[in-house]
């Protein structure tokens, strides 16, 4: 069964970049344009990994990870931030909230693919 990945970003172009970076892998990728939509989709069909921006309308990535980490049903769901917020404090904050990884935009496609594989491997262990 293909690992399910939910990509959350307000920029549709970024959805395409992530899909392109992961095209050689066997993942089932769905997308959402904001945190509220992402949470709804995750509740309907829990992903193995959420890749989320921080700055989005409605519900930020910070709030999304906090909300998901507070629910037992998402205990096995890995969470990765993919954002333009690259300061050390932003990274620390993301990890404190429960992120499994944090990657700064712009990103190298191969690095994203490797990090996704690594996060999924760790979450299955």
Describe the protein.
The chain is of the alpha/beta class and 125 residues long. It is 44% helix and 19% strand. The protein has a five-stranded parallel sheet with strand order 2-1-3-4-5, sandwiched between helices. Helix 1 (12-21) links the parallel strand 1 (4-8) and strand 2. Helix 1 crosses helix 5 and helix 2 (35-44) runs parallel beside helix 3 (61-69).
Q: Low-confidence runs (pLDDT<50, min 5 residues)?
A: none
Biggest sheet, open or closed, and with what strands and sense?
5 strands, parallel
- Report the structural category: alpha/beta
Shape: globular
Report the helical percentage: 40-55%
State which percent range the strand residues make up. 15-25%
Summarize the structure.
The protein has 125 residues and is an alpha/beta fold. 33% of the residues are buried. The protein has helices at residues 12-21, 35-44, 61-69, 88-97, 109-124, and strands at residues 4-8, 28-32, 49-52, 78-83, 101-104.
How is the topology of this model organized?
Layout: E1 4-8, H1 12-21, E2 28-32, H2 35-44, E3 49-52, H3 61-69, E4 78-83, H4 88-97, E5 101-104, H5 109-124
Helix pairs in contact: 1-5, 2-3
From the structure above, extract its key features.
19% strand; globular; 125 residues; 44% helix; 5 strands; single chain; 5-stranded parallel β-sheet; alpha/beta; 5 helices
């Amino acid at each position: 069964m293909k690992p399910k990945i939910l990509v959350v970003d307000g920029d549709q172009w970024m959805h395409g970049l992530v899909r392109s970076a992961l095209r050689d892998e066997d993942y089932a990728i769905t997308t959402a344009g904001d945190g509220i939509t992402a949470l709804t989709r995750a509740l309907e069909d829990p992903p193995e990994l959420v890749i989320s921006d921080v700055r989005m309308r409605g519900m930020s990535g910070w709030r999304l990870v906090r909300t998901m980490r507070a629910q037992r049903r998402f205990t096995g769901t890995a969470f990765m931030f993919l954002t333009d917020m690259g300061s050390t404090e932003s990274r620390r904050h993301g990890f404190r909230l429960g992120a499994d990884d944090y990657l700064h935009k712009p990103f190298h496609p191969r690095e994203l693919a490797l990090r996704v594989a690594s996060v999924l491997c760790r979450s299955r262990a």
